Amino acid sequence: MKASFIINKLDLSIPLIGVYDAPGDTDFGQVKTPPGNRHSCFFAFYKSWEKGTTLKLSHNNYGCGGCGSWLFGEITKTRKEYVKFLADDEGLKANHELMDEWLDDVHAYKPEHGFLFIGPLKDEHAQYLKTITFFVNPDQLSVLMIGAQYYHRPGDPVPVLAPFGSGCMEMLSHFTDLDIPQAVIGATDLAMRKYLPPEILAFTVTVPMFEQLCKIDKNSFLEKRFLKDLKKARKGRL
């Protein structure tokens, strides 16, 4: 899967970030793990991803309770504690009932191999790849939004979602079927925004959606007037 054409049209300088469900001894080159003695949001490793480093997470070392819950299916709080924490301490729903209903409606990802690797794309480990994230500004997000609709037919699964949840959920567990072409607009969790530049959001796609984006060619909107006009207005680059 070669994304060079659309990456070039996006003027994208931030590397694409993959989430891999792979055995713990898989060689991803330079790897970091969360410090075991304190809470650590995995978006704190954003600058490490930019430098080519991969984050390794496991059932025993997942960084924060939210990540443990939603990317590993670990019980990090009782249901009552979780509702109170999210609704009262963080104020994310109007009342306990709404938070309880949301918890009933979402699901955790449970790694097949017990480990998740999050970092720059590695072609040699494509068989373990689950999602790909573009970290983008609003102009680049607009291009990807159109790209996600490019092959979409009425009646197909909704191509782009913007669900409520933690930043780590938005990169994996919000997808109910990783085998369909779909995207999630992410990095909208206030708790993790401080780790990203203020203009950056995430656009996370399944592998089938990534394949569709890679197929978009010079006959598409990527070579038409509106994108050229936008780049001109931005002094040549998105």
Number of domains: 1
- The overall pLDDT average reads 94
Decide which structural class fits the backbone. Answer: alpha+beta
**Oligomeric state:** single chain
Q: How much helix is in the residues?
A: 25-40%
Count helical runs: 9
Strand line-up of the largest beta sheet = 2-3-4-1-5-8-7-6
Strand percent estimate:
15-25%
* Element-by-element helix/strand order: HEEHEHHHEEHEEHEHH
Describe this structure in words.
By secondary structure, the protein is an alpha+beta fold. 32% of the residues lie in helices and 16% in strands. The chain has one domain. It has nine helices and eight strands. The protein has an eight-stranded mixed β-sheet. Helix 2 links the parallel strand 2 and strand 3. Helix 4 packs across helix 5. It is globular and about 55 Å long. The chain starts with a helix and ends in a 5-residue tail after the last helix.
